[in-house]
Amino acid sequence: GPHLLSLSGMTQERIVGILDAAEAFLDVGQQSVKKVPVLRGKTLVNLFYESSTRTRSSFEIAAKRLSADVINVTPSQSSVTKGESLSDTVKTIEALGADGIVIRHASSGAAEFVAERVECHVVNGGDGCHEHPTQALLDLFTIRKKKGRVAGLTVAIVGDILHSRVARSNILGLSALGAKIRLVAPPTLLPRGIDRWPVTVYDRLDRGIDGADVVMALRLQLERASGGYIPSLAEYSRLYGLSREVLERHAPQAVVLHPGPVNRGVEISGEELFCNDVAILDQVEYGVAVRMAVLYLLMGGRGEESSLLAAGSR
Ligand code: CP
Q: Which of 48, 52, 160 is the pocket-test mutation for ligand 1 (most atoms within 8 Å of CB)?
């Protein structure tokens, strides 16, 4: 360790420390200084058991900008296909010389399982329906850039909360920073026990986003809803899809976020002519700086900075 497995228990001070570090790395990028030598000689391994465009690429770009060596181990092309276990796979990767592993896996708890079995740093790149901490950190960073703060803002998270690791990490991060959180979803897409979360639940989109500062649409996770979706996709887009009309009417000042990938025409209407500030590509851009900050704070080798993330480890 230390690791970044979850935002559970991470204090406001520690989250702000990561966002401030990301700000510094964003400035580096803006000044076109693409490479800094802080992780020279370190090796990061991306181990993604589920597909990814954004997370895997941005960890790779972030690590390379910090001068680390990066390799991608793709389970479908690895000895996982010959029956090698997750435990043996990560111990093998560590024996090859990894200083850090970014793991994405379909099972909730996979990142913690890995962290218990290796000495190197582990970052959770998304585990099942559990957490996706760097996604939430880049969402918080984007909100802070667009609105100047997070405390006191009303953030409406719309859609498939039930299957969403992005929603879980965001609820932890947003509540640590003092945002007011609304969840907008039909009861079929909400988890049990929601009444114990620091959120207000709405089942109507217009009421749920009314006056919100931030509207975050979630992807309908077609790969996880084994019994199909209720409501159906067509009903969902009619009832919960973000359109220019509903946003202009109920949340004209809202910044619109989506972790991606977007199912066009389902969570967000196909039209591009929103009057709102749609920050989906800003999220991707800021994600590189946020992941640079996370890798630097974890692997940069100064005990004091590593401890910034220690609360996010177990
Ligand atoms: N937001 C996100 O995790 O995207 P990818 O699945 O493309 O990494």
A: 52
Report the topology of domain 133-282.
Rossmann fold (3.40.50)
Atom 6 of ligand 1 has which residue's CA nearest to it? 52
- As a whole number, the mean pLDDT across the chain is 92
Q: Starting at the edge strand that comes first in sequence, how are the strands of the sheet with 255-257 ordered? A: 200-202, 180-184, 154-158, 214-217, 255-257, 277-278
pLDDT tens, residue by residue, 5-34: 999 999 999 999 999 999 999 876 665 567
Cβ atoms of 66 and 292 closer than 8 Å: yes
Ligand 1: centre distance to CA 304 (Å): 30
Question: What does the pLDDT read at residue 313?
Answer: 43
CATH architecture of the domain 12-131+284-312 equals 3-Layer(aba) Sandwich (3.40)
